[in-house]
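WARN no homologs supplied; continuing
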Amino acid sequence: MALLKAELLHGRHRAVGMPRAARWISRVDQWAPWGARFAGVANTVLEWGWVRVAMEKVVGLSARRPLPAFARQRFDDWFARRRRIGGPRRGRVLLWDDTFVRYHEPAVGMAAVAVLEALGYEVQLLRGRACCGRPAFSQGDLDRARELGRRNLALLQGLAAETPVVFLEPSCFTMFTEDYRELRLPGAEAMAERCVLFEAFVERVLERHPDAVPWRRDGGLVLIHAHCHVKRWGVVMERLARRLPGRTVRLLDSGCCGMAGAFGAMASTYDLSVRVAEPLLEQLEHTPFGTVLVASGTSCRQQVAHLTSMRVLHMAQLLAEALPEA
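OK structure emitted
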């Protein structure tokens, strides 16, 4: 269905031209480095009411939807300067730091590195990697999506065959495992077999080595919301969270959060996005104080954080908080 929509939009763009909003969204990875370079100024300016109104008129982004703040320190810069902890006991992994982790949510990437290293893995990043192409694909800019995919697959050809590629963002994961293949990119089939979600990778390791990490005991309720692209992995997320001693874990029977990438950010679909979220929000009402919602998709976290006061984390952050103190 996603490919059919993308192809329909692509055909329309070729016939009548690509709208300004679609062009802007499909190139969000190009704007993000500039925002992060001047994070203080950019974050302040993007909170000005008249700027948000102007953006709504020019590119269609709803003035009512908070925009994700730019990080003052990029994840890849932090990664290059950090102190490595020990050497690889179990092997190496390549962590795919997507655009939002790199420029907006470096804390998610930092948490993932801490967990993977605690499990005995050396973490690497792919130097020179491009955006996975999901924003372009969703906007029907298939030429750009193919260009980005070819670049990433070419870079990954030099990766050791035994090194898995671990993804934090489900939409990036499915871009590699499904959409690159549907776009018929060379090497996509073989690379898809080496891609794995962070949650699935960690659970797989803990199944083999259940005592690999002496998790700290903590109380509280943990709710799990599975991303639409990877609903089938919700049970894995629940099982992984249950490994943390003292936690009560519940997998929500939830549908789409309503955000769906740029869909919920557009002025034309903002109200519909909020209505779609209502069944999920109903399940979050009247939860005990201190309840944590775990949502792996960045757009899911943005939606819930915007519409509720609940604390929303990536699974990597939940696990990192339970690591034994150094």
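The mean pLDDT is 91.
OK
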